[in-house]
Amino acid sequence: MKENMTAVQNAVSDYIPVETDFKWKNNADEINIDENFAAQSFWKDVILRFFRKISAVVGLFLIIIITVFAIIGPDMNEFTYSTQYLDQKNFAPRIASLERFGIFDGTESMKTTTGSAQVNYYEQKGLDDLYYWFGSDNFGRDIWTRVWSGARVSLIIAVAAALIDMVIGMSYGLISGYFGGKTDMVMQRFLEIANGIPRLVIVTLLLLVLEPGMLTIIFALMLTEWVGMSRIARAEMLKLKEQEFVLASRTLGAGSFFIIFKEVLPNIIGPIITQVMFSIPTAIFTEAFLSFVGLGIPVPQCSLGSLISEGFNSFTTHPYQIIPPIVVMALLMLSFNLVADGLREALDPKLKEM
Amino acid sequence: MGKYTLKRIVTALFTLLAILLVLFILMHLMPGSPFNDEKLNADQREALYVKYGLDQPVVVQFIKYVGNMLKGDLGVSYNISKNTPISQLIRTRLPISIQIGGYAVLLGAVAGLLLGLIAALKHNTIWDSLATVISVIGVSVPSYVFALALSYNFGFKLGWFPLLFSPNDIFKSSVLPSISLSMFTMASIARFTRSEMLEVLGSDYMLLAESKGISGAALIFRHALRNALIPIITVLAPLIVDLMTGSLVVEKIFAIPGVGSLLVNAIQSNDYNVVIALSFIYSAMYILIMLVVDILYGVIDPRIRLAKKGD
User: Fold this and answer.
1) Nearest to A303 by CA among A314, A317, A290, A315
2) Do B248 and A312 touch (CB under 8 A)?
């Protein structure tokens, strides 16, 4: 033991330091620095968690792209959503830059009695400078313009309905939960009855009675979707109303209205936003369903649902007419669901995985 | 338990009554009258009013209406097929709708359960991600998009199944509609199964069962799945109700002579009486399903029964 120590001492005393021993080791890569979450605000944390989830980011990206196109898309070419060129019916999609690769060159195969044949209406009619990017429909209207103005209508309806639902459902649930007792009992029985009527029935009957149009559809959607929202708001209120900050506020003389909307509401905004995101795709779907049944937006206006329903009539002969609205709607619903899922997880990381 | 069941039944009855009231009011609000025919003179119109009992006070009309609805007398069709009792119109159509809906629920439940099981057992592998992708798509893409895609590819291009419903080959022509209807059910069930199974698999009693020497299929089916099934049954009920909405459009796409397409036709030809009768049937079915599930839930899981008693 002792011999060993002296050997080490000898070795060390023999060592003469060189200049490189006094340089920085430059090992920044090897050092692990813990990410510091302690000082972050709640919302910063939520945003961080949200953007870490790839599916949610993809969803958000798709929503942004579709929204941008819904805003500028209808004005990107010379056509409008309602102008009909009856001599230019059922033209297949044709895009200038992709034409030379043999795709989107305005050719479609038609089934005739003697087999299928390649038809190009652009060449037949000598319209070389005409480009319908998504083709034209049964009345010679540009599908590109119609799809994006349809997406615009569908988005407006869905977002408006979801926001109005939020206001109604949230207030109902908060008031019911805050006052409790008899008020809660009566409000909850009413809610149970309202929830017992199928959504489909309310919407269908309402649209039969009222004039069809965008406002009517929003109104019908508003009447059906608030129940889920009010349940969430009530549950959160029941959780929060016994906490000290509510008591403190009441001691300071705050009224019920102030406590409900100024004290409790900011604390439950997370789950409510998530619910709004979930109710947007439901609204899009319900609107599309109504259009399909014939209770949707009146012509010549269009929504994604009415475009699908129009395209359905000729979807075996001209499938390109139904594909764009279906793809846009499916992507829209998918991405709202993805964002809502991501938001729910970001807001409540302890939540069990769905 | 008895008190809870009674309370649920009373609520359900009140809901039904409320729906009838709403339907009755709507019927009176409907624009136009079925007797707005220019060829009719005032006397004839009066006679028609008396025939259909429209000359009596509103309260009497309502009580009569409720009585008739509950007896199964849903009135007659004004437009689609004149003077045919609606109950007769429905009687031939309901079995077809129920059959296709039944296939869809069965398919969706079994496929969803399997998908969810695979995802949970192979947690965090490629199978898990695949199942998640399938279920996200299934939840967010509407059923008629699947219906259109399936009918274009398998009905029109490949010709494996009939494009439209044919009464001669009911089984083959209900394959595509059932699949497209089942997608949403399948996806939701898969999601729930996965999350429930993951929770159960991580629980202490699974560890105990494993340490007792149980393994393989017995462990998964007898111990894990049985506990995971309870919440799954509750989500199945609203899904069955959702199927009704889906079936409307899907029945139209495949031209199935069911209740859904009858409702669509009635809406399009302004046959209000049929719309209202069908709305009543849909609501009644909805209320019944919700009631049965609420009661069943307590029967299946003793823990819930006890919790409700403590209330």
Assistant:
1) A290
2) no
Question: Average pLDDT for residues B157-161, to the nearest whole number?
Answer: 75
Q: What percent of chain B has pLDDT over 90?
A: 0
Indicate the SS3 state at residue A112.
strand
Q: How big is chain B by its Cα radius of gyration, in Å?
A: 24
Q: What is the mean pLDDT of chain B?
A: 78
Residue in chain B nearest A200 by alpha carbon:
B245
* Neighbouring residues of B41: CB distance < 8 A, sequence distance ≥ 6: none
> For B148, which of A281, A326, A338 is closest by C-beta distance?
A326
User: What are A's interface residues with B at a Cβ cutoff of 8 A?
Assistant: 55, 189, 192-193, 196-201, 204-205, 208-209, 281, 285, 288-289, 292-295, 308, 312, 315-316, 319, 322, 326, 329-330, 333-334, 336-338, 341, 352-354
Residue type, B304: I
Element (H, E) at A117: strand A115-120
* Residue range A134-182, pLDDT digits in tens: 777 767 677 778 888 888 888 888 888 888 888 888 888 888 888 877 8
CB contact under 8 A, A330 and B148: no
- CB B260, CB B97: distance < 8 Å: yes
Contact present, A307 and A150 (Cβ < 8 Å): yes
Nearest CA in chain A to B18: A193
Residue B93: how many other CB atoms lie within 10 Å: 19
User: How distant is the Cα of B270 from the closest Cα of chain A, in angstroms?
Assistant: 8
Q: Which domains does chain A have, with CATH numbers?
A: 43-78+143-353 (1.10.3720.10), 92-124 (no CATH)
